[in-house]
Structure formats: C-alpha cells, structure tokens
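Need tokens for this chain, all 84 residues.
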Amino acid sequence: MRIANLPPEVREIDIRACMSNCGEVKSFRDELWNSGYRYKVYNGVRIVEMRLKKHLPSHLNISGNDTLITYGGQPKKYYMCNEG
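Here are the structure tokens for all 84 residues:
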C-alpha cells in the first residue's frame, strides 16, 4: 500500500503503531521518483507491505498528519467523510 502526505521525519515505529490494529506490517520502503536521476530522489510516499485483518480507511491520521492510504482491493470511500 502507499501512504502519501506523510513528512519524512515521521518514524517507522509510529506508522507501525497506527496501522497495527488493521494487520501485521511486514516491510517499509520509500518510493523513489523516476530512475532517470543520477541519485535517489524520494517523493515522500511510503510503501508498506502488510497482511490485513481488516481494511484501512482511505485517509488516516498518523502522528498528527492527515495521510492518504491507497492499495489494491481497497473499498471505495469518499475522502472527506470516509463513507462508501
């Protein structure tokens, strides 16, 4: 899954704590922009692999930051009210 709108200073342990009630977090990595750059350019999106017990909402507050959560098979919800 992709987590967008999350500042780089938010620690992995805080993300894990927030998401742990929905499943088991397997791994984290930072998404990179096009490989055409000479060096790594992070775009601010975190890629999280997890085994879900229940679906995550499309947006989630992590360490005081409103984030956007997207993944394949995610139920469609309205962004503002999180209703289907």
